[in-house]
Design a protein that fits this description.
This protein is α/β, with parallel strands linked by helices. It is built from eleven helices and 13 strands. The protein is globular, with a radius of gyration of 19 Å.
Amino acid sequence: MNVAVLGCGYVGCELARELLADGHEVVGVRRSSEGLRAVKKTGADAVRADVTDGDSLSSIPDANVLVYAVSADGRDSAAARTAYVEGLRTALDHFAARESSPERVVYTSSTGVYGDRDGARVDESTPLEPRTEREEILADAEEIVRAERGWDWTITRFSGLYGPDRYRLERYLEGPVSDRYLNLLHRDDAAGTIRYLLDTGRGRNEVVLVSDDEPVRKPTLADWLADECGVSHPPREPATSERARASKRCSNEKLRELGYELRYPTYREGYRGAIESFRDSQNV
């Protein structure tokens, strides 16, 4: 299998490492020199290209599978539209026009498409009702992926990513924290899910919500982390933005039915290494 990962960053580099270990060929695409160096460290071929520039995409070799894992350059709507709408459409149209186009496209979406559900449960069947510009952009991106281009597609909706270099442990320990549900996903399970779906051929022309087993209230997580690290519980404060107030409980029932087994089923397993490193640092 030849795989091209557009936006080969936090999840993409881990995916590249895993696919290479399975004997697949992987090309990682980034714009910056720093990003290309990170790709090269995985052992994948590194190609410089910009998804918003169709001409630059010509430097990417043909691939059986295209993974679009591009991240926005900022949190504002303009950056989101550039990455998730303009860049996505440009890239997919470019590869669809090739004489040898991909057989399958995997798009890494976000559970942010659900917006605020006031703590209610959501799954793949939950209708999307965008209420903000950013939510509309996320929903528009998924429709771009679904458009008929002669290949199979898979949309993976990732919950909040964490893992090496992104545990953000101090943020929870120091606070303040607001009260809402968090849905978490370890980086290795994000990459592992894509690898699994590609290896098994499952999830074709489907949306798959990718989250761990246990949505958790933010204060509950913060207090547990504090107890495990041996420090005081962090202070509380009301959420100050609409994004911070968004609360929902994501179901991974479909992911489980597809046969994927989470490496880190809950935050307890996922944060264990970070907790041990913190405690070791306090004992120096």
